[in-house]
Amino acid sequence: MTNIRSEVIMGIFHVWHSGILYAGLWPDQPILDNVFKEGRVIRILGKSAVILPPVLALTLVWSYCSGFILSESFRYIPWIGTVITAANCVLIPLSGYWWLGKRAEQTLTGKYLSWYQSICAKLDITAELAPNGLSLAGVLKKASRNRELFKRITDEM
After folding, report:
1. CA separation for the pair 110, 140 (Å, rounded)
2. Quick check: 137 and 23 in contact, CB under 8 A?
3. Contact 131, 119 (CB under 8 A)
4. Exposed (0-12), middle (13-18) or buried (19+): which is 65, by Cβ within 10 Å?
5. What does the pLDDT look like over 1-50, one tens digit per residue?
6. How far apart are the C-alpha atoms of 39 and 47, rounded to whole Å?
7. Which residue among 66, 77, 82, 131 is the one 20 to 30 A from 4 at the CA level?
8. What is the rounded distance in angstroms from the CA atom of residue 9 to the CA atom of residue 70?
9. Summary mean pLDDT of the chain
C-alpha cells in the first residue's frame, strides 16, 4: 500500500518536473501560438508568478484587519476567503505546470510528428523514433536560434 502511494506521489512530481522543464525549453516565439497553446500557457504562468503573491498578501492583510472590525461571532468568516484564495494562488501554477508536463510527456502523432521529422531533417539531426512534446520543444528551440531557418519552418506550418 505504501509503495503504491509513493509511486503515485513520485509520478505527480515527475509530471510537474517535466512541465517546468518544458516551460523552460519552449521557445518564446509568438508565431508558434497560432499552432501550439504552450506559449500562451507559459506566459500566463509567468504573469501569475508576479500577480498572485501580492493578491495573497492583500488577502491576508484584509482578513487580519476584518477580524478586528467584525463582532466576535463573525470574526473567522474572512479567513475562509483567505484559505480559498491561498489555495487558488497555489493551485493555478501547479495546474499549469501539470498541463505542460502532460503535454511534454505525450507522444507526438499526426501533423506534430511530421513537423518534428521535417524540422530534424532541416537541422541535420537524427529524429527520435518515438518523440514526445519535450523532444519537439528542444528541436524548435534549436531551430529558433537560426532566424532564416525558423522563418522557413513556420511558413510551412
Report:
1. 17
2. no
3. no
4. exposed
5. 567 777 888 888 999 999 999 999 999 888 888 888 999 999 999 999 89
6. 12
7. 131
8. 41
9. 85
